[in-house]
Every structure is written in C-alpha cells, then in structure tokens.
Design goal:
The radius of gyration is 28 Å and the shape is globular. With 825 residues, it is of the alpha+beta class. It starts with 14 loop residues before the first strand and ends with a strand. 17% of the residues lie in helices and 29% in strands. Bound molecules: alpha-D-glucopyranose. Alpha-D-glucopyranose (GLC) binds next to loops. The site of alpha-D-glucopyranose has 10 residues, from loops.
C-alpha cells in the first residue's frame, strides 16, 4: 500500500494550455503530490505522474493525461519480486529519489524529470522546455540529447548501427509491426517493435525502455540535433530509465526487466537450409541426400507453406507428402531435423477442425459488433479451396493455450521446431496491410482494440507456440522462429529480419540490423542467407554465407520464384568454398554454443558491436561492418563485390589472425588482403577458443575431440560450457562448466583447468590443446606426470602425449572432470 507522506497543493493548474508546435500541450505542474515507498506521485483533476524505483538501477516514469492510470499491466516487463525502497529527499521545488545505482530529480514547476547514476554522472533528462506533452490521445516526451551522445537499439531497424546518424543527421523510427517484402535500408517500420534504446555518453551508458504497445515513434536528433523524443498515439507515457555505467550493465538490467532468451537446442545452432518451398516430399529428401552425399554439413531442413493442404495450419497436403512421419523419421536417421511453418491465419471454413474449434471457443479476433473478422492471407491463394482467414486472439490466455495445444499433431510426426510467420499480422487489405484498428481483443480480460494489440500480436503468437511446445514436451527445449515480435519476445523465439533482398546492400545492412537486435535483448537472430527476394550471384551467396558463419541463427532461405539457393548451386569452385564455410561453422560450434549459453544467462548478445566491449574507444562507436563474437573473436566479413582487401579496425591491445601467430596491434586499422574464400577472423591476445573436428551434423559431436586453442599473451581466461544440447536437464544441474586459465611468463607456460562444475559428462573423448606461438619446449607435465613427446603426425593416435608442430605445441589428453594443471618448459 502506498504510504502517503504528505500532499502539497500547488497554485498552478494541471497542464498549461501553452500552445506549442503541432498543438502539443506541455505538462507544467500538478497541484497534488504524495510519496510512496518507491517514489512520488503528482496529480491534478485528470493527470497523473509517478516516478518510482522498480529495481536495482531502474526507475519508472508513468504519466497519464486523461483519466488517471489504467491497469498496471505489461506484456513485456516481467513482474519484479519486490521493488527496493527509495530514499526520498524533498527540498524547495524539487523531489529527489535516491537509491544505490540511480537517482531521480523531479522539478515541480514545470514538472521535469532527470536522472543521475550513483557516480554523479547525468543520465536521461527531460528537455527543460518541452518535457512531457499531449495532443488528443497522443503523448510524447522530449529529452535533451548531448553533443557526444551515441544512440543504439530500437530492435530490428534499418540504417546504421549508431542511430545518432553520421553527420548527426539523426534518425526517426516508427514502431508498427509491418510486412515489408523486399525492404531496403531506408524502409521503416519493418516486422519488429522494440521501443528500447541505449545512449552511450563518453563511454558511459544508460538505457530507456518505453513500455507502450501502440504505434510509437522515436526521433533521434532529426527534429532538432539536441533533442531525442518518443511517444505513442495512445496509452500512457510509461517508460523505464536504466542505469549502466557500462553498456553491458544496461543490457543486463534491461533483460532482467524483460527476460532473456531460453537455452536453445544445440541443433538450432547448426546450419539450416530452407526455401519457399521444398515440395513434394521427394524434393526435400533429395535436398537431404545431396547434403550428405556432398558432405556439406547441415542440421535442419525447413518446410514452407506448400506442405499444407490449401495453406491450412496443422494440415498436410497428402498428395505431396503422403507419409510425413516416415519422411521426418527417415531424415532424422540421416541426422536432420525438420521445422515446419505455421502461420496463425486458419481459413474460415466450417468443417475444418481448427476453424470449428476456434469458432466454438470464441478464439478469433472480432469486429466491434462482435462478429468474427476475416481477411485475405495465404489461404486466399490456396491452389484449390480459396478462403479468407480468421485470426486467433493471442491476447487471451485461453486462446494461447488452445492454439499452443494444436502443435501436438506436428510434434507427434517428429517435427522439431516451429516457424511462426505473417504474424505482424499481415492481412492483405489495402492500404494498411493489417487488421482494421477497431477490431476487438480480449487483452486478458480488459478488452481493447487492435491499435493497442497490434504490436504484441506476433510476440503473443510465439508465446502461445513456445508455451504449447513446453507443455507438450516438458523435457525438450522448444525452438521457435518468428518474423514479428515485441520487446520481451526474446523469451519465446529466435527472430529473422524477414524478406530482405539478394543484393550487396542488403548483405551490408544485415550486420547493423542483427547487432541492433542483440543490443535490444534479442541475441538469437540471423538474416536469410543469400537474400530472400531475387537470386544472388555466386559471389554474393558465398560472401553472405561467410558473413553469417557466426550469425547465431544461420539459415539459407529464398522466395518461390528465385533460382536454386543451396550451397552447391553456384558451380564447383563456390561449392567447395561454401562447404568450407559451413564446415567451419561446425568446427566453431563448441565456442558458439558456449557463447549462446552465456547470452541465455546474461542477456548479452554473442554477436555484438565492437563498442559493447570497448565503450571508451570512440573509433568503435559507429563501426557496423564487423562484429565481435563473445569477447575473444572479431569477425570482419567481406561485404563488397570484387574485394581484394578488407579494412579492419581492431580495438584493445592486440589480436592474432585466426589459426596463426600473425599479430595485429590494436587501436588501429589494418588493410588485410582477401580472396574469395577469405573470412578475416581475429582472436584476442591471450584468447582461449574452443573448437572441434568437422562433423556433418550436431548428432555426430559426441566423442569428438575438443580442440582448445591458446593464443599468445601473458595471461588469458575463458569459461567453457557444455550439456546434452537438447533436454531441460541443464536446469537441474546436468551441465559441465569449466574455467581455463593460461599464463606465459619467465617461469614457463601453464594452463590451469578447474574441476568442472555441474553433473553432465561428455561421451569419452580427448582434448587437443593447441598452444600457438610456442617453441623450444623440452618438457610437458600434466600435474606430476611427464607426457611423452611424439611426432606431430602421431598426435591423434596417442592417449596422452605432446608434439612440437612448427610454431605450436600440441597436447592430447583424455577429457576428465577433475582439475588439470599443465606446465610447459
Ligand atoms: C513470407 C516470409 C517468407 C516465406 C513466405 C512464404 O514472405 O517472410 O520467409 O518464405 O512468406 O511462406
């Protein structure tokens, strides 16, 4: 219960009618004030402003202009167990809220809010002049933008990574989930809305999350170079200010607020092959056989809309797919998983069980008069029975349960994952291309219109899928891919940025887009490799595959009319390069899995911009043609046609070209020569990375050597995680985590591996430890035991041994759970 400490009557009226551009009325002051444990509330006849501490380092501002606050409900923000108490300090005309990591200062007349971190660094602050303002149902706030503020985030957005814009020209973004086939770098909005951004100010960061699902917009220095504003066409101005001080702290706090990605199944980190559409069954089988015959690794094959009867969810076209269980079972024996598309737009067709059940249960979105809404999507183009579709109302818990349960029929056939598409929702009604805004949604018992529910429709579709899969197979990690989603949707699905195009600028755009998603809480992302609309040249396909070698989600996919887009579709030279790229993906899988587990735990993206690890280096602030993968790898894909060189900026101290001892100094750019088969990868000085021999799919991993590469450097540390890759046993302690520490100094060279934490044991295998840049070693000891030296060619046959191979020392040992201490002299 709020404790009313005191109320103050101000003489000034609620919202002044001070006319501003566009008719905005700016909030001046409010006559009443009281304090609660977490903060303070101001109110007048209709308006209400509340500023409160909600979590460690997180303050919330809530303002409603019309009739007080509505229900305190969020689809994105997770319930906070218990909000900490803020210290409240009142002085003349000012209220301050203080906590360990963040302070708020609220000036009473006019009402303006600003924030500081515990170190006294200014964070977010209202623009003194404009502050909060309203016009009609719309609400907006103007914030001061400082000259050196860099701005990032906003989920899946086109344009550069740094939204301050080069030459400070700024950006203006809209949040409205939209089906934007063949979009380009200037298209906005697209499929996803994440109203979150991060400001980097001279190396220190803070974040803002605007928790409003209506159509919203953000102006970053475009209206005026010293202003950032955001607002929505309806609902409350309800936002969270998130303290750093580092950008990593901001993302950790933001994802504590809105949740983190679930642990993915390991197969989902392998290579995925898709197209619209592989049909009939024999075509899919031929694709599978060709991967295995050509020894190009892959884990997952995708079935797009044509596997269904007349594009009806949860049906099979039995002429083309007479025996889905037999097909999927056979593919499973070849080491493939199958993911099927399931669009949430069943046709309005009495007699079709999904329609009948949904209709009887009142599960479909209705018009204001209560009748079922229907509109054209894929089923309106069905080969035979063309129909308009109805749309499950995923804002209702019972509808989510019902729809989620329907996946049983697919899981029973052996389907491993679900692809939710068209869930903006895309409805082919011009000009909106979505549902009418006055349609009704249950909204968990507080009915609302589509204008409010639109942006969460896709996210709640995936919530229904994810929770359905969890209920149906409680011990299996669900895999869901979605096109549309909202802040917090990372809890339910991986995301791909929709229908990109097969051209070089789309390849280049894919990097800042994926990096921006990672900063916005979505680490499990990847774009259609090769581009969706159109057909890539052989060179473009190869470059895209390389750029995606460390894409968390790595899938080739293309549209219906395009040329073949498999790794072998571009002639023998490209086939062998493409094979090597995918082989490399699998060689890196131990590292990739390790980093994705870290993303699941911490919320920090594995694929990340340079500034995330080097926020104090201004050279990193606008880099978006290369990326870090974790902290130890820097990837600089070739993004230009016909390139013979690649400029790479390396932050920090020093890096090594992958798998070599070629050293590159940090804090400078390097010009690296490239060939068609080059993907420049750099490993941080002292880095320890984890790899394995080539496998054809993740099912072949058990028993394979774990390769541990140690790069030159005085010291280096890494943590390495593994588990069964599939079940929920990891959550019950069945995993293996080990800390590795290398040291190279005058006393010699050492590697310490701590005893493993967790109860999972890998199948019997060996470690192959590769010490780069090490010569003149005469003795290797494993604890007290002296290892035998062998010829480098014999290293893979011995049980425990070492060899000097050129500039590296190789050591082979059986994997064990106990601590290891290797000393080299
Ligand atoms: C949409 C999807 C695309 C899919 C197609 C057919 O355009 O974005 O990936 O292949 O629909 O389902």
């Amino acid at each position: 219960m709020p404790v009313v400490r005191h109320a103050l009557l101000c003489s000034i009226l609620a919202v002044s009618a001070a006319a501003q551009a566009g008719g905005w009325r700016s909030l001046q002051s409010l006559p009443q004030r009281s304090t609660i444990d977490q903060g303070a509330i101001w109110w007048g006849e209709q308006d209400r402003l509340q500023v409160s501490l909600v979590d460690d380092g997180v303050m919330r501002v809530r303002y409603a202009a019309q009739s007080g606050f509505g229900r305190d409900h969020s689809w994105a923000v997770l319930p906070v167990a218990q909000s900490p108490t803020a210290e409240i300090v009142e002085s003349e005309g000012v209220t301050e809220l203080r906590s360990a990591a963040i302070h708020a200062r609220i000036q009473h007349a006019p009402l303006r809010v600003s924030f500081w971190d515990a170190g006294g660094q200014a964070l977010d602050a209202d623009d003194p002049e404009r502050g909060i303002a309203v016009v009609g149902n719309a609400v907006r706030v103007w914030k001061a933008l400082q000259a050196n503020d860099q701005v990032y985030g906003f989920g899946q957005k086109n344009g550069r990574l740094n939204k301050r814009g080069w030459s400070q020209g700024g950006y203006h973004y809209t949040m409205w989930n939209s089906d934007t086939f063949a979009y380009d770098s200037s298209t906005d909005p697209t499929y996803v809305s994440v109203p979150f951004y991060l400001v980097l100010r001279e190396g220190r960061a803070f974040g803002v999350y605007f928790d409003n699902t209506h159509r919203s917009s953000f102006d970053i220095g475009r209206e005026s170079p010293d202003l950032l504003s955001f607002g929505a066409t309806g609902g409350e101005l309800d936002y969270y200010v998130i303290a750093g001080p580092t950008p990593k702290d901001v993302i950790a706090r933001y994802t504590h607020l809105t949740g983190r990605m679930p642990m993915p199944p390991r197969w989902a980190l392998g290579f995925h092959q898709s197209r619209w559409s592989y049909h009939p069954a024999s075509k899919l089988q031929w694709i599978a056989d060709t991967f295995r015959q050509k020894r190009i690794p892959a884990d997952t094959l995708w079935l797009d809309i044509d596997y269904q009867q007349d594009f009806k969810p949860f049906t099979w076209d039995r002429l083309q797919f007479p025996d889905p269980a037999g097909l999927i079972g056979g593919l499973r024996e070849q080491g493939f998983r199958v993911v099927t598309i399931v669009d949430a737009h069943p046709p309005l067709q009495p007699g079709y069980p999904v329609y009948d059940e949904g209709h009887a249960g009142g599960h479909f979105v209705t018009r204001p008069d209560g009748s079922e809404f229907s509109g054209p999507v894929w089923p309106s183009q069905a080969p035979q029975d063309k129909r308009d579709s109805v749309f499950p109302d995923f804002t209702s818990a019972s509808t989510r349960d019902w729809w989620g349960g329907l996946y049983a029929s697919l899981l029973d056939l052996g389907v491993a994952g679900i692809w939710n598409d068209m869930n903006e929702p895309s409805v082919w009604i011009k000009p909106s291309w979505t549902m009418p805004l006055d349609l009704r949604h249950d909204n968990e018992g507080q009915p609302t219109d589509h204008a409010e529910a639109h942006n969460v429709y896709g996210m709640l579709n995936t919530r229904s899928t994810f929770e359905g899969l969890q209920r149906l197979r409680p011990d299996t990690r669900p895999f869901v891919l979605t096109r549309a989603t909202f802040a917090g949707g990372q809890r339910y699905a991986a995301v791909w940025p929709g229908d990109n195009t097969a051209d070089w600028s789309a390849l280049r755009q894919s990097i800042p887009t994926l990096l921006g998603m990672g900063l916005s809480g979505f680490p499990f992302v990847g774009a259609d490799i090769g581009g969706f609309a159109g057909s890539p040249s052989p060179e473009l396909f190869t470059r895209w595959l390389q750029a995606a070698q460390f894409s968390p989600f790595m899938r080739a996919h293309t549209e219906q009319q395009s040329a073949d887009q498999e790794p072998w579709s571009y002639g023998v030279r490209h086939e062998s390069i493409n094979r090597r790229v995918i082989e490399a993906r699998y060689q890196w899988l131990p590292q990739i899995y390790n980093e994705m587990e870290a993303a699941h735990r911490s919320g920090l993206p594995a694929m990340r911009p340079l500034f995330l690890d080097y926020p104090n280096d201004p050279e990193t602030w606008s880099r978006d043609d290369s990326y870090l993968f974790g902290s130890d790898l820097l990837i600089a894909p070739v993004l230009v046609e016909g390139a013979t060189h690649r400029e790479v900026y390396l932050p920090g101290a020093a890096w090594y070209s992958f798998d070599s001892v070629q050293r590159f100094e940090g804090e400078q750019s390097h010009r690296v020569p490239v060939e068609l088969d080059s993907l420049p990868i750099f490993v941080r000085e002292g880095g320890i990375v984890f790899r394995q021999p080539v496998v054809q799919h993740t099912g072949e991993m058990p028993g394979k050597d774990l390769i541990v590469q140690l790069y030159p450097g005085a010291v280096g540390e890494a943590s390495f995680y593994e588990d069964d890759g599939e079940t929920m046993a990891f959550a019950r302690g069945v995993f293996a985590r080990r800390a590795f520490r290398q040291q190279r100094d005058a006393d010699g060279v050492q590697l310490g591996i701590d005893a493993q934490q967790g109860r999972w044991r890998p199948a019997a295998r060996h470690w192959r430890i590769e010490w780069l840049g090490l010569q003149g070693i005469g003795e290797v000891r494993d604890g007290d035991r002296r290892l035998a030296q062998v010829d480098p060619d014999a290293i893979d046959e011995c049980e425990r041994c070492w060899a000097q191979a050129g500039d590296r020392v190789l050591i082979r040992l059986p994997d064990r759970a106990t601590a290891v201490n290797l000393r080299l002299r």
